[in-house]
Amino acid sequence: MTISRRAVVLGATALAGSAASTQVTAAQAASAGEISSAAHRALELLYREQPRTREIGKRAVAVLVFPKIYKGGVIIGGQTGDGALLVRGATEAFYNISAASFGLQLGGQTFSYVLFFMNERALDYLRKSDGWALGSGPTVVVMDQGRAASLTTTTLTQDVYAFPFGEKGLMAGLNVEGSKITRIQPGR
């Protein structure tokens, strides 16, 4: 099994005990334009792979797209990725998602993650919070392809719907994990 350099760095960073320091060095960080373009491409990919999500996107007040999240670990692990907040199709702000995890786990992978904000209250919470820990604040429902297929516009009752997709790599095991979303200012 091949684990990317970035996944190894994530695991080592988590081992050092600081999920916040999983941010990429300035030399490796993507520019605002690169993050925005990648976010738009990832959202279109989700719409193609799971057509019902397009209707959710039309009803959402905003969409937070993390085009690529890197995850890796050996017992102790971490994940990180940068994304863009899209409001009415335009990029409004940039965010990082990071987490540390501990448990029976081994491997590395990348995946994409899209959060549909269904009301202004949930979006305001994201905008005003100094880092949003998933599991606190607005109700987030994580959807898989099976659950997404059964979703209709009349059953959209939650604050935020989250869709992980495009997994690549191998990550095996169980873990306890909490992700934090923090606003960032990428370079131009």
Which bin fits the share of residues in helices? Answer: 25-40%
Categorize the overall geometry. globular
Q: Roughly what is the average pLDDT, rounded to an integer?
A: 78
Structural class: alpha+beta
Radius of gyration: 16 Å
**Poorly predicted runs of 5 or more residues:** 1-27, 146-155
Termini separation: 36 Å
In N-to-C order, the SSE pattern is: HHHEEHEEHEE
How is the main sheet built?
Answer: 6 strands, mixed
Structure summary, number of beta strands: 6
List the helices and strands and how they pair.
Elements: H1 5-16, H2 32-49, H3 52-59, E1 62-87, E2 90-117, H4 120-128, E3 132-133, E4 140-142, H5 145-149, E5 160-173, E6 176-184
Parallel strand pairs: 4-5
Antiparallel strand pairs: 1-2, 2-5, 2-6, 3-6
Question: What can you tell me about this protein's structure?
Answer:
The chain has helices at residues 5-16, 32-49, 52-59, 120-128, 145-149, and strands at 62-87, 90-117, 132-133, 140-142, 160-173, 176-184. The chain is globular. Strands 1, 2, 3, 4, 5 and 6 form a six-stranded mixed β-sheet that branches. Strand 1 (62-87) and strand 2 form a beta hairpin. It is built from five helices and six strands. With 188 residues, it is of the alpha+beta class. The chain has one domain (5-184). Residues 1-27 and 146-155 have low confidence and may be disordered. The longest helix has 18 residues, at 32-49. The chain is 28% helix and 44% strand.
Give a quick rundown of the structure.
The chain is α+β, with helices and mostly antiparallel strands and 188 residues long. Helix content is 28%, strand content 44%.
